[in-house]
Design a protein that fits this description.
single chain; about 170 residues; alpha+beta; Inorganic Pyrophosphatase; 5-stranded mixed beta barrel; 3-stranded antiparallel sheet; 2 helices; about 20% helix; globular
């Protein structure tokens, strides 16, 4: 499944950016509290909605950092179930569909165990110094990612229809 995603945070950044829903601009949310940096580009899938009332989150593996606000084509290869402060906050793990180093990956098990450990560790640790609790579950295969994306698109569709009726 190839989809468009918007990058909010470039690989290697300590700055947590996010889409401001009121203005449609990318805003600075916070600076990470430790020496931890985002191991890969991070963003969201447009026209999706999750239980946390945000678009579906996506971590995009590719060779280069991307500027916040840029969009690119990605392929979902897995799902990382996560709970953030008691709230479901799953992450799609994807690769850039146009990056020659990563475009051949199709499932989470194509990644080296070290890469999976790196991703897991980042999300387990990135809010620790803020005293915020995060729990990361085992990675799930690409078909679970596809189902999560479809569900979030359906939620967005329902939300959009209800908004039009108001």
């Amino acid at each position: 499944m190839i989809f468009n995603c918007v990058v909010e945070i470039g690989k290697g950044s300590k700055v947590k950016y996010e889409l401001d829903k009121e203005t449609g601009l990318i805003k600075v949310d916070r600076i990470l509290y430790s020496s931890t940096v985002y191991p890969h580009n991070y963003g969201f899938i447009p026209r999706t909605l999750c239980e946390d009332n945000d678009p579906m989150d996506v971590l995009i593996l590719m060779q280069e950092p991307i500027y916040p606000g840029a969009f690119l084509r990605a392929r979902a290869i897995g799902l990382m179930p996560m709970i953030d402060q008691g709230e479901k906050d799953d992450k799609i793990i994807a690769v850039c569909a146009d990056d020659p180093e990563y475009r051949h990956y199709t499932n989470i098990n194509d990644l080296a165990p070290h890469r999976l450990a790196e991703i897991r560790r980042f999300f387990e640790d990135y809010k620790k110094n803020e005293n915020k609790e995060v729990a990361v579950d085992d990675f799930l295969p690409a078909d679970k990612a596809f189902a999560a994306i479809k569900h979030s698109m359906d939620l967005y569709g329902t939300y959009a229809v209800e908004a039009l009726r108001r």
